[in-house]
Amino acid sequence: MRRFVFTFGFLMILASSGILFFQWMGFTTESAGESGIVEVSQSYSIIHKEGKFEVTQTIHFPSSIPSDPLLIKWPEGAGNFTCKDKEKTNCLTKENGEFYVSTLDQDPQEITITYSLKKSRKADSVILRNWYPVLSGISTLKTDIELTEKTLRNGKWIAGYPSSNHKKLDYIDYYFFSGRGEPSDLVWTKESWKESGSRAVKVLTEEGDPAGFDKLDSLESADGFVTVLISGKIKPFKSPHLIVLNDAYGEEVKSIRQSLLYQTLSSRDEDAWMKELVVSILLNEPPNSSKPAWAYKQLKEGLSPSEWDGLRQKVRNQTVDRNMLDDAVSKVTGFKCSFFADSLKGNDHPLLILKASKPIMVNQKSIQLSYVSYQQKEYVQFPEAVEAMGIKMKELQPGVYFTSVEGNTLRFYINEDYFIYNEENYGLMGKPVQKIGDTIYMDIHWFGKLFNAEVKNKENAIEILKRM
Fold first, then answer.
1. Left if phi > 0, otherwise alpha if psi is -120 to 50, otherwise beta: which for 310?
2. Its pTM surpasses 0.85
3. Which residues contact 199 (CB under 8 A, 6 or more apart)?
């Protein structure tokens, strides 16, 4: 009975996931070549002995070669870096602490990168995640992985790809994995596995646990492949090709649909986190990783429900990059977005501050002021907007402003949820004056109410007028 319930529950979740997935599978992605992305194939040769991985990576470029050096981000803990072109010439440089692959001047071209990693075995498993370097400006279409195992002979390496081969030789175990897209995460375990699934989803369960997942017809035509490892002995994680679950129930199974949709999208390899974000926008589900999860949270808080629905439409059928996402947000909100371009500057937690690109008119005069939308509210620069109305403001001390309007006194405190009116404290649900980014702003609701002003966000200008 327990086996039947387990199997039936998993199949029902996959069936419903498949139906939702194919609602999104109708769209096709824009040609990567049209967006300036260089598409490559990669092959890796990995030799593992006593916790040390020696990796040789070969990148096969097409005739279109980037003219500028390619920034390369090494995996955490990597060392002993080298890079050679086909003529065995060094192609690795270092500037200001950053590594670059130098300009390639032959078409077609391939380069070979070598590095080493150390990874200790934990209990009965070894997990290799984010084990490969990422180069700027390229998109990996296909990856081959050869793995030579010299130490862990009593278990098996698993990847997320549909093609795999394992040969047990006298002194080594040899593995070969091949699939679409960037390199798969890898897991070694001592366990024996039962395999089931469909063309698009391979399910591995421990010996003795129910498998029986052989009716995954709902995902049979999916354009991608995911391996799902169900084990109570390995810490769960989710990635585009390989997913580890402790069980097959509940919300966790959504990861299959997310990974399959991820594989239909195109981006530069360094923008992979944006693909995860777009998948979450399309499916209306928060991402798993921290960087796209932060961006998703900012978008959810910053866009109205109708704007959010508009964004979901705008990101369909698109190659994923910073410009596309910023442009999509700008179009649905009417404010200029540079949130994703700003992510290049190294800020891990940027705020979604949407800026008006229209002229600001105060009493029919053009004034240089900042006007923004933040968390679905509009703000005007403070105290400059008040002074543009002809009202004098005095800063009593840092962060405290005082003025008088028609005989009534007002005192504001930056980032506090109250203001003082005629020496009486008025507590609010929000902050009337706050610092957003590097600038102080005032909520236009309180600006209009307290300073007898009317603020109109029109098509061609933002007008601020004193009420008569």
1. alpha
2. no
3. 162, 220, 221, 222, 225
For residue 365, the SS3 value is: strand
For 282-294, what is the mean pLDDT? 91
- Of 50, 76, 59, 51, the closest CA to residue 130 belongs to 76
212, pLDDT greater than 90:
no
Q: How many other β-carbons are positioned within 10 Å of the β-carbon of residue 396?
A: 11
| Confidence category of residue 22, pLDDT binned at 50, 70, 90 | very low
Closest Cα partner for 278 from 270, 269, 268, 287?
287
The pLDDT score that the predictor gives to residue 207 is 65
Strands of the sheet containing 125-128, edge to edge, are: 125-128, 186-189, 156-158
Contact assessment for residue 183 and residue 203, using Cβ atoms and an 8 Å cutoff: no
More confident site: 163 or 4: 163
How much of the chain is in helix, strand and coil states, percent to nearest 5? 25, 40, 40
Tokens representing 271 are: 């923008």
* Distance between CA atoms of residues 67 and 431, nearest Å: 50
Cα–Cα dist 181/266, whole Å: 9
Query: Amino acid letter at 141?
Result: L
| Number of helices and strands in the chain (H, E) | 9, 33
